[in-house]
Amino acid sequence: MSMMSKDLENLVTLLDVEEIEVDLYRGRNTDEGWVRVYGGQVVAQALAAAQRTVAADRPIHSLHSYFIRPGEPRIPILYKVDRERDGGSFTTRRVTAIQHGRAIFSLAASFQVMEQGLEHQDRMPETPGPEGLLNEREWNEKIGERIPEPWRTTWTKRARPFEFRAVSHQNLFKPKKMEPAARNWFRADGAAPEGMALRAALFAYATDMTLLDTCILPHAVSWTDPALQSASLDHSIWFHHQPDPSEWHLYDQTSPVASGGRGLNIGKIYRQSDGLLVATVVQEGLIRYRAPR
After folding, report:
1. Helix/strand/coil percent split, the chain, to 5
2. Is 283 a catalytic residue?
3. For 8-34, what is the mean pLDDT?
4. Is the pTM above the cut of 0.85?
5. Does residue 208 carry a catalytic annotation?
6. Each residue of 60-85: pLDDT tens digit?
7. Is residue 150 reached through a cis peptide bond, with omega within 30 degrees of 0 on the bond before it?
């Protein structure tokens, strides 16, 4: 695996939250022209803050979070950590992300000492590997002028600390109705630094990418359609094993239901090398569609 790309280096720096008081941390932001902070960044920074208060031999095993208000990209985010429990095997933390004195995000995280136990898992589905598939940047370059502005400029300039390769692409601007299922390969753009805590935070950052797309597939609605209002409402991750973001992982995604202006998405993440089920992710998103009269 090659050395870290500049974008991955920037993400590692972004996750190095600054301690400004006991159990209070400040996360830097990056303004890439988006109207709100990318949800995966807030999840990862909140996890990084929680991990600062937990013993290194207790890795994260699950987190559950809610997006309360859109984050503003141009100012830092404060993360307040509450130490709810330090038990014999498990540690629990709650984190509140704050901007302008108001909560924009909340996270509950549970950590556990590493131990052996009963094991079973779903089998990784058979699917083409990442070799030979186009990544996001290569795909955008291929369709080039067919991407309308302002998306063309935004997509070509945004940071890509992770490389994603879709098993099957569709036209984002003129989508066709599809089954609510998708598969994407992903890995960090370079060798991730050592350390379970940092690698878990990096991995958490990536899990918010592509997942919400799944519940839109059956409806042939483009993300660029002004009638569509979409946003992540919550985000949960179960870490079955500690991940190495530098390795290829298959993100197997399904959406079992959409109703009430919301869509539920479930992702199982498998390691390519041995089919290990590393994590399961569940996210509900707002998909409010108001067709013009």
Report:
1. 20, 35, 45
2. yes
3. 92
4. yes
5. yes
6. 999 999 999 999 999 999 999 999 99
7. yes
In the block, which residue shows the tokens 């239901």? 257
Label residues 48-80 b or e (16+ Cβ within 10 Å = b).
bbbbebbeeebbbbbbebebeeebbbeebbbbb
Confidence of residue 138 (pLDDT cuts 50, 70, 90): low
Looking at per-residue pLDDT, the higher value among 252 and 154 belongs to 252
Could you identify the residue written with the tokens 């990544």?
135
Q: Per the structure block, which two tokens stand in for 222?
A: 């483009």
| 239-267 pLDDT, tens digit each | 999 999 999 999 999 999 999 999 999 99
Instruction: Assign 3 a pLDDT band (cuts: 50, 70, 90).
Output: confident
Sign of CA dihedral 203, 208, 214, 215: positive
Work out the mean pLDDT of the chain and round it to a whole number.
Answer: 92
Q: What token pair was written down for 282? A: 């569940």
Q: How many other CB atoms sit within 10 Å of the CB of residue 142? A: 10
Is the confidence at residue 156, as pLDDT, over 70? no
> Which one is the CATH code of 6-113+135-289: 3.10.20.600, 3.30.390.50, 2.40.160.210, 2.40.160.40?
2.40.160.210
**Separation CA 162–CA 206 (nearest Å):** 7
Q: Which of 41, 232, 253, 255 is catalytic?
A: 232
Three-state DSSP class for residue 155: helix
Single out the catalytic residue among 41, 65, 230, 283.
283
Q: Which two tokens stand for residue 128?
A: 């083409």
Catalytic pick among 208, 213, 244, 252: 208
Query: For the chain, what are the domain ranges?
Result: 6-113+135-289
